[in-house]
Amino acid sequence: MPDGTAGTVAPILVREDRDAVATLVLNRPAARNGLSVALLDALAVELAAIADDAAVRCVVIAAAGPVFCAGHDLKEITARFADADGGRAFFADAMARCAAVMGSLPALPQPVVAAVGGLATAAGCQLAAACDLVVASDAARFCTPGVDIGLFCSTPAVALSRAVPRKAAMEMLLTAEPIGAEEARRIGLVNRVVPAASLREEAQALAARIAARSALAVRLGKRTFHRQAGLPLAEAYEVAAAAMVDNLLAEDAAEGIGAFLARRTPEWRHR
CDD domains, alphabetically (predicted)? Predict the structure, then answer.
């Protein structure tokens, strides 16, 4: 989908497929990869297509330019203050579209890895937090700066508070202070910190390693993980135990166990 900026024809979202990994590249570097309605729609379309694509076993979300994502497109938002309703209808629609995209990431059958190479702020931080794993460059920074402009990052707080301890999330939300990649790893927002020059390579390698596993086991495991996470302990074990039974009855479990006992490499059938 092309950018809505006059005179440009470059797609605002680029998909690259390699080794069973689909990489989605935010491609609005001049706009700091701001989440315009058009970019949110493009993400929604591609994620829906990936969900039904059995050839894709892992996803990477990356970005062009020095900024991963600066959050919502504030120029687009500001222009709607002149609407007859002050922008209410547009804002409600934009937030609903954003929530749908963010909610689709943990619901996606395939694991999602964010490759954060620069600033991830506001809804950009939300995007990273909503992914299953985050690989960050040593130059990456994360921030929820809404309070600095009188707009508390309430929707980014949803993903952030599920990715890091609550007090760490509240400090980021209340102070608007950016944190570096190592601090983000310390609080659990980031899994790995790598040199900036090798960010995409490292994220791709991690995704490829995941994609090399049984797709059935990974998809079942991701779904169960997110389902049990919000349940009381006893219910969580019920859900997990039922998933283990289903997994044990799958062809790949029999193949994997047999291969382990025979000390050979398993041949996954992804069923």
Answer: crotonase-like (cd06558)
